[in-house]
Amino acid sequence: MIQFQHPEDREFFANLLTGGDQEKLEKEFSDCFDFRHPAIKRWEFNKIKRKLLKELILKHGGKCQLRIHLDCSKDGKFEPDHIIPLSTNELNKKLRHMARTSSEKVPSQSFGSNDIKNLLLSCKRCNAYKKHKLIMPNGANPK
């Protein structure tokens, strides 16, 4: 069972990924989550990034799956992008209504995994534009 820190996070991701079906979230998307510290996941990702990029280019034919920036794919440079970010503070902002204080940002939570199911091919411009946001790309579905 996916071990979310807050029950409302399970509902959020079920709605985002499966139209609210929590059973389907468990069955089909459990590999997309990894709640370990983001620094560990980033270190691991950097070791396998080139291999994953090659797999994604073969799978998607060198086309950006995000397509969210006006200049999408213009420079022809691609990189793997996490559908569910390794860490994000969006749920703390949206669901728990936490706000930035004058000295500190809203804390982030660790969510996404480096599993190929949680990755898509993104051009550098779209990936930079997306940052750590939870955006479902045009037609993309982690699987």
Q: How would you state the average pLDDT, rounded?
A: 91
The rough form would be described as: globular
Low-pLDDT segments, ≥5 res: 139-143
Count of individual beta strands: 4
Please summarize the sheet with the most strands. Answer: 2 strands, antiparallel
Order of helices and strands: HHHEEHEEH
Biggest sheet, strands in spatial order?
A: 1-4
The secondary-structure class comes to alpha+beta
Radius of gyration: 15 Å
Tally the helices: what do you get? 5
Amount of beta strand: 5-15%
Total number of distinct structural domains: 1
| End-to-end distance | 18 Å
How much helix is in the residues? 25-40%
Overview of the molecule:
By secondary structure, the chain is α+β, with helices and mostly antiparallel strands. Helices cover 38% and strands 10% of the residues. It has one domain. The protein contains five helices and four strands; from the N terminus they run H-H-H-E-E-H-E-E-H. The radius of gyration is 15 Å and the shape is globular. The two termini are 18 Å apart. The C terminus is likely disordered.
Topology, element by element:
Elements: H1 7-18, H2 22-29, H3 38-60, E1 78-82, E2 87-88, H4 90-94, E3 109-110, E4 119-123, H5 124-130
Antiparallel strand pairs: 1-4, 2-3
Helix pairs in contact: 1-2
